[in-house]
Amino acid sequence: xxxxxxxxxxxxxxxxxxxxxxxxxxxxxxxxxxxxxxxxxxxxxxxxxxxxxxxxxxxxxxxxxxxxxxxxxxxxxxxxxxxxxxxxxxxxxxxxxxxxxxxxxxxxxxxxxxxxxxxxxxxxxxxxxxxxxxxxxxxxxxxxxxxxxxxxxxxxxxxxxxxxxxxxxxxx
Length: 172
Description:
globular
């Protein structure tokens, strides 16, 4: 005789807890890391040129490539980092809605730059932090590409070799 198993979420959670108590590993349904990466990349793509500080005409890389690299970096860390960056994007969108009546992604490049500049020079620390935190992973991902590094006059391999030659100590 089969046991009745409702298809509700609490039953699955209970089954997972029971399996963990017996010492078995039950994988989570779905890939949360891939979902976080996709959500973050979608919210960073339209803002990439404005947050990096280059207009779209001078932006050497495709914004999708930069946003994917930035979201991969953020998702590799703890979930709190993901939430902080995504929250900062939402704060910038909220500021844009308050000041212009439209979301940041629907504004033109000059208006996006104006809203981000307003946030980064604000007296309110939350707005300054949001503009810096949303732009930091994009800037790291943008300047981490070989094409951009060569355009600036240095190679990443030479920097790694130079860093490997110096001993890092915390002694004073």
